[in-house]
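JOB MANIFEST
job_type = single_chain_structure
chain_count = 1
residues = 261
[input]
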Amino acid sequence: MAVAFRLLGSAHDAEDAVQSTWLRADGAADVDVRNSAAWLTTVTTRVCLDHLRTRRRRGEEPLSADLLPGEQVAADERYLQRERVSRALLVLLDALTPAQRVAYVLHDLFDVPFTEIAQTLDTSVASAKKHASRARQRVQSGSPERAARAADAAVVDAFLAAAAGGDMTAMVALMSKDCVREADASMVPAGTPTSIIGARQIAEETTLFADRIRASVEVMLDGRPVRIIAPGGHPLAVIDVDVRDGLVCRIGISPFRPGRD
């Protein structure tokens, strides 16, 4: 289940993959399996790989959280929190090809030897290593190095922590008086202005979305750190915060648009 969830990003799909694995295991009762754990991992991975390749052949992009059934997002969020799965990792894994995702998850997260990964992918060991290396580069490029970030990041972190806790006083103190909140029309309720000016007005609105702020994670996008709201690990929106003179001066909210090679 742990492997399948990280490969597919969905608790429901992962459960289906595990069930398919057990059905295949039951049908292979006469097969001489020396290492049952490795064999089950391989079968599970192949089931997931078929699923990922089917998605790709159909040109399916990962769905935004608002386009998924609420019960699916809730189930994924419960699994993510219970098993302490990295929210950021799930967002970043969606940018990988099926082969890259398999190679990275199996080797870097579960320490599966490349000889076994190569067999699963039906490729050479050198090719499996190349898939993992490319995946690693993409994941690392999307993971901000905190030591290398600007000092303004501490202000952004403090503001978002206050927003997640609904602390209006702290939010107002961390914003400039003329702070601007700009949002894509699809990101706010009907009739809500796409632009709001004023620290207190922004703070009052932000308290209504504390649950979404709590489901955010920091990643690199277009070379700069932003926050992705990703309930259940499914990207929904991008929060881009600008800081001037130690205070938040602009908050941009836009839909998350996945990009793949």
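[summary]
The chain has two domains: 2-141, 147-255.
The chain has twelve helices and six strands.
exit_status = 0
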